Amino acid sequence: MAYEMLLANTDVDKYRRSTERWRLLAFVLLLCVLGLLVGIIIISFVKDKQLQDQMTPTCSGKEDINLEEPSDPSVFHDLTAVEVGGLIKYLHSQRSLNLVDPSKARVNNSYVYLAEIYVPPKMKVLDYLDNNGVKPEREAMVTIFRGDKRPPVVEEYLVGPLPKPNYLKEVPGRRKDIPFNLRPLTGPEVTAEITFLEETIHQTLYDLVLESFGGKLRDCGDKCLIMQVSTPFSPAVSGVPLGRKTWFTMLRNIDFFILHPLDFAVLVNFYQDTQNVEVEAVWYNGQSFSTFEELATGYADGSVEKIKVPYPVENDNTFSSLKRRGPEFQEGFKRDPIQFEPDGKRYKIHHNHVEYMGWQFYYRMATVSGPQIYDIRFLNERIAFEISLQEIVVLYSGFKPDQMFPNFFDSFMLIGSQDKGLVPGIDCPAHATFMDTSFVLESSKELVTFKNTFCLFEQNTGYPLRRHQSYSTDYGGYFEGMPNVVLTLRSAFTVVNYDYIFDFIFYQNGVVEVRAVSTGYILATFHTKQEEPYGAQVHDQINGNLHTHLFNFKVDIDIKGKTNRFATWDITPSSRPNDYSAVQNAQYHMTNYSRQVKQTEEDGAYKFNFQAPKYLLFYNEQEKNAYGNPKAYRLVNNGMVKQLFAENEGNEPAASWARYQVAVTQYKESERRSSSAYAYMDSSDPVVQFQRFINNESIEDQDLVAWVTMGLHHIPHTEDLPVTPSPGMGLTFYLLPYNYFYLLPYNYFPEDPAMASKSSVRIELKDKSKPQDGVRVIKYGPEEEKQCVAKKNSYFDMLKKTSGVIVDDGSGSTAI
């Protein structure tokens, strides 16, 4: 029995093991099948993706873009690395200049502050471009701070010919020696002054600062205070002809510090002969003192009215921070719409020369004054020789010194060098072409290159350039329209707190638009009752004060040559007898206009008057159309503002161009710019005196320059926090092709030149007598709509591997 049971158990075990083996085998087979299915699915997906990629390729086409540094640069090209190498070597070989290494320079040394290309005289350039004349030699304009001289001065030279200079000479139309106290702020100077202030305040006012503001200037941990330049105090305002005074303000070192001002400021004077810093005034809690010691004594004995402002906790929700926060207003997430170029880029770039849809122009970045375009042509005809930014000015108002005295002239900060790191997809469309710019600055031994300072892109503006719908068959029964696609050259500048975006926009009908947009942080001040007449409280203890933004541009207009006239169409009210009225002696009121040719520069200085509207027109009297009438370009300034500062008072003389919305002068080589890098400090006797440009010289049949001023008044509001949004902050002016004489339907061109564009679409009846037969659609490009995938924006991947593009990585200092 036991034996039989053993056999039975053995059979059961064999059966169980056999079953388990089959189960295991089935499981393995199942896994193989599943793996095979997954493989088939993956292979199918990959093949589908490949087929899809073949069906929807990456957008591309034949492109003509060359951004390499040229071996033979154009007359408008910025300095090249080879030229800068030769320039620096030559300058340091001149013993009379006594130059030191810029990285080791102090205020009492002689060193190169900046160097940039000096565009040759216009007549030489035009002879070269238009008459196959000799190409003008390239020269650099070099600014040297001669702190080693007694008295110290600023010297400017033309050095050439590049790339192997053998001479330096005076700059035409400029002072030989510029007073040293007028120079822009420099790294060595500001560093020395801030170090002196922070150390002295930490020693003499330690208790006051800690108790009043909850932080320290030294050994501060996470509650740090800083002293920053508020405004230079110009000789015209301070009343000290050789003064070099600057107001410094105390702020919390919180992101972003400009929105964390405290009611504490110091006025210091930098003595150029002794290189000493001396305190001339101390401002605390609405009270002014002569010295730190006077304030410290009064604070200790209780005679000074005290203030106590706790140091705030900084986190992601800090009101001044630019980290995302706030209630969601998008359910889920869907990506932004984008534009792309289905056939590749339709413009060409050769070094710094651009061609697009009949347009041609050169671009460059002036170190002092910013973006410039030259030799602007449409359909091979020059419209303007130069359109360029000249100056950015911001005029503030307030009770406290840090808002009362700031009248910022941004050339003082070297506008061009403040442009760096445009971001694809935000600052410019992702499909834009990005160009770099190189500079010679006070801290550089060689050419310093900033990435992405310009971007160039085509953009569909989203509204038609023209359109007309004739719905009724009685009126023709058709539609014709054209998308308004433009080319934009853009640059953007961050001058400490404010950001400025500048565009040169080219339309396909011969129109040029220039646009300036303000954004960035407002310059806040500590809120007190005394500030209320000058602005609004925008946050706890923060006041946003009234200020005025001003932008000045040079427009060297050459319409059908350089012999032009400036005229206005003056629009006035008029009336005529209404013979068809039942009322006896009835009058019908309307408007008419008359043309006025301006004879002199004084006549051409235009102050807008709403009681006397005008058209502003430029033309060549000798170049006429088929009907015997001169053609013209109209200047339209949509960014006009009234500058309210008293003329010839304070800093106003340095911005006398702002008195006029447009001022037309005769071209002179000695009147290249309306401002200078010294404008902030030289108001009492400007290095460039724009008002002297305007006199009784003739502007009839002359080479004319229009100086265009745009601006706006800005009273900050809570929505300007943390950063002022751009809508409503944009200003524009246009150059429009325009017929000069009235009663004629023709413009500068016989008709809209954009009629030649293949982008237009016409929809019309197949047969006007049989509208029921439907319509035909006429396209002048490919009939089939091309589909392609936009190129990937790899910019952010690049940033992870490359430093110093958006944020200074400490590898080299730049201009302040």
Provide key terms for this protein:
816 residues; alpha+beta; Nuclear Transport Factor 2, Chain: A; 4 domains; eleven-stranded mixed sheet; 36 strands
State the name of the first-level CATH class of the largest domain. Mainly Beta
Compute the separation of the termini in Å.
Answer: 106 Å
- Provide the β-strand percentage band: 35-45%
User: What would CATH call the architecture of the largest domain?
Assistant: Distorted Sandwich
Shape designation: globular
Gist?
It is built from nine helices and 36 strands.
Report on this structure:
16% of the residues lie in helices and 35% in strands. The chain contains nine helices and 36 strands. The strands form five sheets. Strands 18, 19, 20, 21, 22, 27, 28, 30, 31, 34, 35 and 36 form a twelve-stranded antiparallel beta sheet that branches. The radius of gyration is 34 Å and the shape is globular. Strand 20 (478-495) and strand 21 form a beta hairpin. The chain starts with a helix and ends in a 15-residue tail after the last helix. It folds into four domains: 16-55; 81-172, Nuclear Transport Factor 2, Chain: A (Roll), CATH 3.10.450; 187-301, Nuclear Transport Factor 2, Chain: A; 348-390 and 409-526 and 554-562 and 596-757 and 791-801, Copper amine oxidase, catalytic domain (Beta-galactosidase, Chain A, domain 5, Distorted Sandwich). By secondary structure, it is of the alpha+beta class.
